């Protein structure tokens, strides 16, 4: 009986395969609100950045150079695969926007401060972490169409795999934290600006005054983790603040890290346009620091809307 049922099922296979492939319809989700469009335009902006970054990491170095730097066989080829993934992500998001009648944001001209395979991979870890944070932060805004949220989430998980592979390649933990850090659109967009030379079209997102982490440099291979209490040194231009600040006012560094609320620590002046602050207890992985006059009570979105004097600066701890 079982055998005869199997024969019957097998006999039906030609019917099953006679038409479905040519009748498949475009399964891409729609764009149902201005919020959907703004989230997707930022995602595309960042995908263009990553596509250019990874293409350079593949084209600018040879297999022998990656091997000499200590990376495993096949690493350069996989950087090329990641570049292809980013190209697919960008083209898919652009198609979703175009299908809905929106003009996709075009690529910019970029500059990346890497000089060898190791500095490329360290930079790629930082930039990919920003992309992961942007997808996490933007996902909560995609409430109009569950299929659009699913599409964005499917890109997010692949981005996380990319980052884990990069981190393992330099001898770091591929999963340094229990949670990743979500970023607002303002913070993600500002973190991308340091790599932008020019753009035919920028997004309508506020560009904040710059905060630069001067020291310490991330530990080699991101091991061991930077311990709590380590002094971080930041520089900024007080004349660029959007509000007047008393030169004697107490300033704070707010650190976004994992899913906790922002951790605020007192900043100590090290001269005009310079402060130091300790790494907070429990901080690990990658954090994002901002300079503020607030010492608590704000979450990441509120900090990006009205609580930031300068920043964010990416802080790689482990």
Keywords:
single chain; 318 residues; alpha+beta; 4-stranded antiparallel β-sheet; 10 strands; 14% strand; disordered N terminus
Describe this structure in words.
The chain has 318 residues and is an alpha+beta fold. Helices cover 43% and strands 14% of the residues. It has 10 helices and 10 strands. It has helices at residues 2-11, 13-16, 20-23, 34-59, 63-68, 75-99, 117-139, 146-169, 185-192, 300-307, and strands spanning 109-110, 196-198, 211-215, 231-236, 252-256, 263-266, 268-269, 274-278, 286-292, 310-316. The strands form 3 sheets. Strands 3-4-8-7 form a 4-stranded antiparallel β-sheet, with no helix packed on it. It has a 4-stranded antiparallel β-sheet with strand order 6-5-9-10, covered by helices on one side. Strand 5 (252-256) and strand 6 (263-266) form a beta hairpin. Helix 4 packs antiparallel against helix 7 (117-139) and helix 7 (117-139) runs antiparallel to helix 8. The model is unreliable at 1-25 (pLDDT under 50).
Mean pLDDT, all residues: 91
Number of DSSP-assigned strands? 10
Regarding quaternary structure, how should these chains be classified? Answer: single chain
Envelope shape: globular
Structural class computed from helices and strand pairing:
alpha+beta
**Order of helical and strand elements:** HHHHHHEHHHEEEEEEEEHE
Query: What separation lies between the terminal Cα atoms?
Result: 61 Å
| Low-pLDDT windows of residues | 1-25
As a percent range, the share of helical residues equals: 40-55%
- Order the strands across the largest sheet as they lie in space: 3-4-8-7
Our estimate of the beta-strand percent is: 5-15%
Number of helices: 10
The Cα radius of gyration reads 23 Å
Largest sheet, in brief, is: 4 strands, antiparallel
